[in-house]
Amino acid sequence: xxxxxxxxIALSMGDPSGIGPExxxxxxxxxxxxxxxxxxxxxxxxxxxxxxxLSLDAPVRACEPEDAAAxxxxxxxxxxxxxxxxxAPGAPDPADARATIEAIERGxxxxxxxxxxxxxxxxxxxxxxxxAGFAHPGHTEFLAELAExxxxxxxxxxxxxxxxxxxxVPATIxxxxxxxxxxxxxxxxxxxxxxxxxxxxSRFGVAAPRxxxxxxxxxxxxxxxxxxEDIAIVAPAVAQLRAEGIDARGPLPPDTxxxxxxxxxxxxxxxxxxxxxxxxxxxxAFDSAVNVTLGLPFIRTSPDHGxxxxxxxxxxxxxxxxxxxxxxxxxxxxADARP
Length: 339
Prior knowledge:
Blueprint: E1 9-12, H1 20-29, E2 38-42, H2 44-53, E3 60-62, H3 65-71, E4 76-80, H4 97-113, E5 118-121, H5 126-130, H6 139-151, E6 158-162, E7 167-170, H7 177-183, H8 186-202, E8 210-214, H9 229-243, E9 247-252, H10 260-263, E10 268-271, H11 274-284, E11 290-294, E12 300-303, H12 320-337
Parallel strand pairs: 1-2, 1-5, 2-4, 3-4, 5-12, 7-10, 8-9, 8-10
Antiparallel strand pairs: 6-7, 6-11, 11-12
Helix pairs in contact: 4-6, 8-9
């Protein structure tokens, strides 16, 4: 295999009826000479047909990861899947669930084999996958299973949404709000804090990560007047992390911790539930935020948006978040390769 710098990023196609395939084409068209090559795990015939439909001057070349860097200058490298794609843009087909899953699995296997240096994933439709028997709440949880299957590592994956302006981590993810409150424990918050601090230091190069924990309740509970969870769960978790040498603070009132001056005081915000984390970052950095999975034995990034079936195949999709995800994967891969 060539030098580490020539080892590509694997990009899974996501749901082939969503915008993932077309933003992959657009990301290739917007490539810069300095960009690390990526290889798309997809159906080459489907990709070529989509490029023609959208009138995109994006040749597709079926190849292996070892040939991706050489091909990247003149064509989008595509590693063919064993499963063909049948769905059309904007018309999801449960029959494509197998190909969607295969692309993710192949990506992790390629990282494990050292044939690619990181994995970026395009958006999937969990509803479509559920119809085909997919047993995981989302990408993040599925990747934890693949870490054990391919690397032999029992991983507790943590979802971080990262942008230059803000990084947020939901401690509970794809569950109802009622279930999130039930799932919230001191142990969960401590484990999440440890993983975030470790990966910020080891992969993002933050020497002494500063973690800000949001309160669960309005005003962080007002000393128990609006719920005791912040006193009984969040504060003890922060104290335990501080005793371990991690710069953690909180619980902080969630309504005042995301303005610019407050954000300057921490490197990542640990939030108690999904929307508490995703609403501020999607407001501040909708087009540039990247989904990064922490706690895994490999690098994984993803654009911070969904399949957007309503505009799939129209050419209206914006590849900015995917480009940011590929750029971040390349940056983390370069840091990972340093002695």
